[in-house]
Amino acid sequence: MFIEINKVIKKIKEEDYKRILIQVPEGLKTEVVKIADKIEKQTKAQVIISVEPCYGACDLRLDEAKLLGCDLILHFGHIDFGVKTEIPVLYIPVYFDLEIPEKVKKEISEIKEKNLAIYSSEPFKKVLDDLGNYLLKIGKNVVSKKIILGCSEVKNSAEANIFVGSGKFHPFVLRGKTYFLDLEKNRLEDLTGEVKKEEMKKKARVLKFKEAKKVGILVSTKPGQFYKDYEIIKKKIEREGKEGRILVLDEITNEKLGRFGFDVYLNTACPRILDNHFDKPIVNLKDLF
Ligand code: SF4
């Protein structure tokens, strides 16, 4: 794992920040105290650590930063996707400098499709470049090469996709023939069947919504997930003969939604919350309209 901490320290000194809130994803929580110690030793700033889960650059803890009088948020492990903030936010990428093992390269060379679109998440950027170069070397065409988020909209542009990284969170935004180059298990997996199943689940959820009468519209307060046009959506639903009620919350969990008596929930926030279990049917806004 590689973090450019010296650049961060230089920036803090240059701008003379006094109090800093640090946010890290779960995988970095074992390192965060060491990072805070290093910053405090080498700058004049006081560092406060946010303990709340941090799922993406959509999940900035602005209220806590304001409450504690912080003049900077250091947000590790995610890339900036343009959330406007009063307090400056410094996004610090985390990279993995891994090699594609020879065994996996052999598996890649056995892929039948010639025109390939390749993807990764930000931390695996370097491996994505290596994959692109290797594919060209073995005579494949790389028609698209992109960094994606778990909520990206990706259009099919090739005969097949390859996602390189760890964990199946990201590859499920892809459609059609999809391979997963799993750097944790060091293998190439054909995910096409699982990707199709996800599509079918999505269609089933949309059907449930069509049949429902009472709809709870979920609006998240997370800065990068907040959906400002909730009123428009409510009116749209009501024009379809349904009852709509706006519900506001930070993190959306099954436990919070249990007792209201809605037939279905409409999620305007992170589309990937549906990867979790919910007792009540729940559908993503982007799958409906
Ligand atoms: S997938 Fe969800 S948590 Fe990740 S960046 Fe998108 S909205 Fe945020």
Describe this structure in words.
The strands form four sheets. The protein has a five-stranded mixed β-sheet, sandwiched between helices. Strands 3-2-4-5 form a four-stranded parallel β-sheet. Strands 13-12-14-15 form a four-stranded parallel β-sheet. It contains nine helices and 15 strands. It starts with a strand and ends with a helix. The chain has three domains: 2-94, Rossmann fold, CATH 3.40.50; 102-190, 3-Layer(aba) Sandwich (Rossmann fold); 200-288, Diphthamide synthesis DPH1/DPH2 domain 3 (Rossmann fold, 3-Layer(aba) Sandwich), CATH 3.40.50. By secondary structure, it is α/β, with parallel strands linked by helices. It has helices at residues 5-15, 32-42, 62-67, 102-109, 125-137, 192-211, 230-239, 254-257, 285-288, and strands at 2-3, 19-23, 46-49, 72-76, 89-92, 94-95, 115-120, 141-147, 160-165, 178-182, 187-190, 214-220, 243-249, 264-267, 282-284. Residues 55-56, 58, 149-151, 225, 270, 272 line the site of iron/sulfur cluster (SF4).
